[in-house]
């Protein structure tokens, strides 16, 4: 697998069309899912998705496999391009701020019910989070990325990502309680 990835990277650096197609085939679906979790309008997500691969192909010479896997590197580009897109659009969406929810003192129960109503509330609560918090939750729970990979993608450190996840989980719990 590593040898195949190294060959793919070399072929991409030499701008071989078959390598571009292979990159899109192997990594495209995961990149699009990440972009679409941050940018919910499909047309906008498709635009950013294309931008991600254009940027990746232009920057493939700078890719360092010692820093991150190719998939994680692409996720970092997707994350940053998605947030940049949202910043440029300045949406009229109001996100819930931590201060509006009160104290951080209560914990999320381990025996929370997993019924359809709770899942619907969770999805609604997730939609109220700022895009970068949605992305962190998505990467950790849906894509099962490690704290180290999320840290690389977001330009942070693993302990900070762990703290952010804890804070976001508590925030989600408080949001659900208010819904």
Question: Secondary-structure map with pairings?
Answer:
Elements: H1 2-13, H2 17-38, H3 42-59, H4 70-89, H5 98-101, H6 116-127, H7 131-142, H8 147-154, H9 158-178
Helix pairs in contact: 1-2, 2-3, 2-4, 3-4, 4-8, 6-9, 7-9, 8-9
Q: Which class of the largest domain in CATH terms?
A: Mainly Alpha
Give me the count of strands. 0
- What is the CATH architecture term of the largest domain? Orthogonal Bundle
- What number of domains? 2
What share of the residues lie within helices?
over 70%
Main sheet record: none
Which structural class is indicated by helix and strand composition? mainly alpha
Q: Which range does the strand content fall in?
A: under 5%
Write a structural description.
- The protein is an all-alpha fold and 179 residues long.
- It has 2 domains: 2-89, Rna Polymerase Sigma Factor, Chain: A; 98-178, Arc Repressor Mutant, subunit A (Orthogonal Bundle), CATH 1.10.10.10.
- It has 9 helices and no strands.
- The protein has helices at residues 2-13, 17-38, 42-59, 70-89, 98-101, 116-127, 131-142, 147-154, 158-178.
- The longest helix is centred in the N-terminal third of the chain and has 22 residues, at 17-38.
- The radius of gyration is 18 Å and the shape is elongated.
- The termini are far apart.
- Mean pLDDT is 87; it is low at 103-109.
